[in-house]
Each structure stands twice: as structure tokens, then as C-alpha cells.
Specification:
By secondary structure, this protein is α+β, with helices and mostly antiparallel strands. It has five helices and ten strands. It has a single domain, classed as GHMP Kinase, N-terminal domain (Ribosomal Protein S5, domain 2, 2-Layer Sandwich). The protein has a five-stranded mixed β-sheet with strand order 1-2-3-5-4. Strands 6, 7, 8, 9 and 10 form a five-stranded antiparallel β-sheet that branches. Helix 1 crosses helix 2 and helix 2 (133-147) packs parallel to helix 4 (206-235). The model has no long low-confidence stretch (mean pLDDT 95). Bound molecules: adenosine-5'-diphosphate (ADP).
């Protein structure tokens, strides 16, 4: 990653008008897929992603079952129309890698030992990608797992930070990802204060690394608030209206 043009203007505004510490607008709707046990539609800036969770359910093929714990399977997939040029619908190496890191980012939050010999499947379908789709997918998947009623230790909130014009910025978009100096996606369990994913594409000094990491964790905490609100909206949203009607 080597930057060729300036991506932050004199007023400190980025290519999409945000300041360096501003998150894109995030919207989450819970329970959007009728046939899934848990589901979420997330809009993270221009990213649009549907996550559907199935399980715990019987494992097929049976030899994949584990006697002491549940098997978590994740599939991250970008639809052919999710990018500016048509994406081949067959799974790419990048999608295989992201599916793996998603599973590893989500697993520590789940009490998989509570469902021996079973499997939980998480399908992450990217309808529109705009940089940071793995973080948006992880954050949505964690809420979808909670919606499916899976026993959990914490939610997993994810957000990237990066380096643009030699400045550390929160939540980099597609242009900043492609033209900027560094991209660091982080997934974090806010209640347990534990990191479950840390990737870095680009070069940072030790100070920049620390600043970038702290910025990403702050972003995760912002995402966590939105995750909680989305769950509250589904499970308690109407309760306030019901109470008002009764009074
Ligand atoms: P993330 O979406 O988690 O940031 P990457 O850094 O690998 O993952 O990708 C950054 C962005 O590049 C994606 O969000 C997407 O907009 C774009 N992109 C990824 N793969 C393709 C592809 N095959 N064709 C076109 N654009 C792509």
C-alpha cells in the first residue's frame, strides 16, 4: 500500500466528508430472514450485508461432529453485483480467508461447549461492498448469533482503523482502503475487554501501530452500542409501546 494522492483535505475532511475519528453511519435490523434462527441486515456506510444463522443443528457430514463442543461454520460471500466490476460468484481465496478469520473472531464469544455434537452455520452475504465488509460482517454475525439464542460470553464488535495521508483514521472506506497507507481490522469483546481479531495490511511505525489499534478499539466500542440498541429494538422495542397502550 503506497499512497499517490491526498485523501484528506485542508479542512480535515476525508473523501466521504467525515473527520478522522468519525464512524460511518451504521444501521442494523434484527430478525429479517424468516427461515433463519437468527438474522441481521447491516448497513455500514455503503456496505450492505445480510447475515443468517442456523443452529445449533445436526452436523452433516456426521464425522465432522465433535463430542465435546459445537462446530461453528462461517461462510463469507460477496454477491456478483456487490463490487464495481462483476465478481465471480465462485468462492475466491480472499473469501475463504475471511470466512476463516470470521469464525476465529466469533468463536471466543460463544459457549460452544453447551451444544456438543451440533453445528452452527453463519452465512454472511455481502450485497454491496465498500471497504470494511469483514468488520461489518463480524459485528452483524455476532448480533445474529444472539438473535438465534446461542449462549454467549459477550458480543463481538469489529471496526477497522488505518493510515491515510500519514494520519490515523477511524473506519476506512473503500477508497482509503485501496489508496491509503494501512488498514487494520480489529474485532473486540467490549465486556471482556479481549481482542479476537487483529489484521494489518500496510506499514506502520510502533507509535502509529499503537494509535491505530486504540482508534480501532474505540470504533468497536461505538459499534457495540449500536449492536445493543439493535437487539433491544427487536426484543424490547415494542414493549414500551405496549406499556404506553396499557396505561
Ligand atoms: P474488507 O471489505 O474487509 O475491507 P478487503 O480489504 O479485502 O476487505 O477489501 C476491501 C474492499 O475491496 C471490499 O470491501 C470491496 O469493496 C473491494 N473488493 C474486494 N474484493 C473485490 C473484488 N473481487 N472485486 C472488486 N472489488 C473488491
Amino acid at each position: 500500500m503506497s499512497q499517490t494522492r491526498s485523501l484528506i483535505d485542508k479542512q480535515g475532511k476525508r473523501t466521504d466528508g467525515r473527520t478522522v475519528e468519525q464512524l460511518r453511519e451504521v444501521k442494523m435490523a434484527v430478525g429479517v430472514v424468516k427461515n433463519a434462527d437468527g438474522s441481521v441486515f447491516i448497513e455500514f456506510g455503503k456496505n450492505k450485508i445480510i447475515v443468517a444463522v442456523y443452529g445449533p443443528r445436526e452436523v452433516h457430514p456426521k464425522h465432522m461432529a465433535q463430542s465435546d463442543r459445537c462446530v461453528l461454520r462461517c461462510r463469507y460471500h460477496m454477491s456478483p453485483f456487490s463490487t464495481d466490476t462483476r465478481k465471480n460468484p465462485a468462492p475466491s481465496r480472499r473469501e475463504v480467508e475471511i470466512s476463516k478469520v470470521m469464525r476465529e473472531a466469533l468463536e471466543p464469544a460463544l459457549m460452544l461447549e453447551d451444544y456438543p455434537r451440533a453445528a452452527i452455520d453463519v452465512y454472511v452475504e455481502v450485497l454491496q461492498a465498500d471497504g470494511g465488509s469483514r468488520c461489518a460482517g463480524i459485528s452483524a454475525a455476532s448480533v445474529a448469533l444472539a438473535d438465534a439464542g446461542i449462549n454467549m460470553r459477550d458480543l463481538v464488535a469489529a471496526c477497522a482503523a488505518g493510515k491515510v495521508d500519514d494520519k490515523i483514521v477511524l473506519d476506512i472506506n473503500d477508497t482509503e482502503d485501496k489508496e491509503g497507507g494501512a488498514d487494520m481490522p480489529v474485532a473486540y469483546m467490549p465486556h471482556l475487554d479481549e481482542v479476537t481479531l487483529l489484521q494489518l495490511d500496510g506499514i506502520l511505525t510502533r507509535d502509529q501501530f499503537n494509535q491505530c489499534f486504540d482508534t480501532a478499539v474505540e470504533g468497536c466500542k461505538m459499534v457495540y452500542e449500536i449492536q445493543k440498541q439493535a437487539l433491544m429494538q427487536k426484543y424490547f422495542g415494542n414493549e414500551t409501546e405496549v406499556k404506553e397502550e396499557v396505561q
